[in-house]
Task: inverse folding
C-alpha cells in the first residue's frame, strides 16, 4: 500500500479522517508510524495529499488530512477481456487498476466456463476490493469502471461499436473514436503504427477466441494482432499490451 485510499464516510470532520479495519492493520503492521508522522493519502475519485497522524491505537487511526495534488492521468484504454478463473480475475482487476485503464469490460466467449459467471469474485464488493488494492499500489485514487457482458453477440454487435465510436451505451460522446485491436496468436504482428490511443483492447480467454468470434470482432472494426510466436497467459498478454499503449 503506497497510498491510503480514503472515502467520504472516513471523515469525522472536513479535514480529519478515522481509519479502522484492513487499512488500520496495514498501517500498524507495515508502516508502523508514530504520532505526527505523515502518510500519503488520497480521496477516492479525488486528490492526493498527506495525512498527519493525530492518534493511533489498536482500534483506530486519526489523521489530519490535506489534499492538494491531482491523481495520475488515466491511460485512455478500455480493456475488454473474456471472463477468466476467479483467481486470475483478481490479478487482472488489480493490474488494470494499477496501470490506470479507464474501463474494464468482462465479456462471455465460447471457451469461458459457465460456472465463472456464478463466482463470488464478480460481486460488486469483491471487484471493488481488487480495484482498491490496485490504486493503492500505484498511488492513484480513481477506480476504473467495470462492466459485465454475459452475452457475446449483443456485446460485439451493439456495445463494442459504441465503444469504438467513443460513445457510452446511452449514446453520449465520451472521448472520440477509439482504435480497436484484438490480441490473437493468429493475428498480424503488432506494429508501432498499431499503438494508437485512445484504444479498445480485446483479449480472449486462455483457450483463445473461436474463428466466429474473431470474425465478429473484425466486422465490428477491430484489427486482429499477434504478440509474437509465444503463447502468453491472459494476464501476461494484458500487461504486455497495456505497457505498449500506456
Result:
Amino acid at each position: 500500500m503506497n497510498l491510503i485510499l480514503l472515502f467520504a464516510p472516513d471523515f469525522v470532520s472536513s479535514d480529519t479522517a478515522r481509519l479502522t479495519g484492513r487499512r488500520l492493520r496495514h498501517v500498524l503492521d507495515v508502516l508502523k508510524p508514530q504520532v505526527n508522522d505523515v502518510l500519503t493519502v488520497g480521496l477516492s475519485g479525488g486528490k492526493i495529499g498527506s495525512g498527519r497522524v493525530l492518534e493511533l491505537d489498536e482500534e483506530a487511526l486519526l489523521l489530519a488530512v490535506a489534499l492538494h495534488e491531482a491523481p495520475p492521468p488515466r491511460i485512455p484504454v478500455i480493456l475488454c477481456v473474456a471472463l477468466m478463473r476467479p483467481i486470475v480475475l483478481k490479478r487482472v482487476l488489480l493490474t488494470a487498476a494499477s496501470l490506470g485503464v479507464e474501463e474494464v469490460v468482462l465479456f462471455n466467449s465460447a471457451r469461458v466456463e459457465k460456472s465463472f459467471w456464478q463466482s463470488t469474485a464478480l460481486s460488486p464488493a469483491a471487484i471493488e476490493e481488487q480495484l482498491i488494492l490496485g490504486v493503492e499500489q500505484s498511488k492513484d485514487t480513481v477506480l476504473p469502471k467495470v462492466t459485465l457482458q454475459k452475452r457475446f453477440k449483443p456485446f460485439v454487435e451493439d456495445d463494442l461499436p459504441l465503444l469504438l465510436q467513443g460513445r457510452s451505451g446511452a449514446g453520449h460522446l465520451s472521448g472520440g473514436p477509439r482504435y480497436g485491436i484484438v490480441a490473437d496468436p493468429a493475428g498480424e504482428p503488432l506494429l508501432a503504427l498499431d499503438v494508437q490511443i485512445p484504444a479498445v483492447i480485446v483479449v480472449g480467454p486462455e483457450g483463445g477466441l473461436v474463428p466466429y468470434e474473431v470474425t465478429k470482432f473484425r466486422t465490428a472494426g477491430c484489427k486482429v494482432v499477434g504478440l509474437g510466436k509465444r503463447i502468453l497467459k491472459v494476464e501476461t498478454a494484458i500487461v504486455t499490451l497495456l505497457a505498449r499503449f500506456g
Summary: Helices lie at 21-31, 86-99, 124-138, 152-164, 211-220, 234-245. The chain has six helices and twelve strands.
